[in-house]
Amino acid sequence: MPGRRLGKNGPKISAIGYGTMGLSLGYGPPGSDEERFKVFDRAIELGSTYFDTADMYGDSEDLLGK
To answer: Known catalytic residues?
Structure first.
């Protein structure tokens, strides 16, 4: 996956990020941690290095930290 630099001297991240809101809320009850880890694993396999999280996204930040 192509990358993009954040600012002039910032880190290089994937051009396409993964928004994590849907893993915790918004589309019905969340799946098991195991199912949601598979989603993260697949995004990483496809070259994603940027994950968009927020406190208001439920437990997505905690899940990513595991």
So the answer is: 57
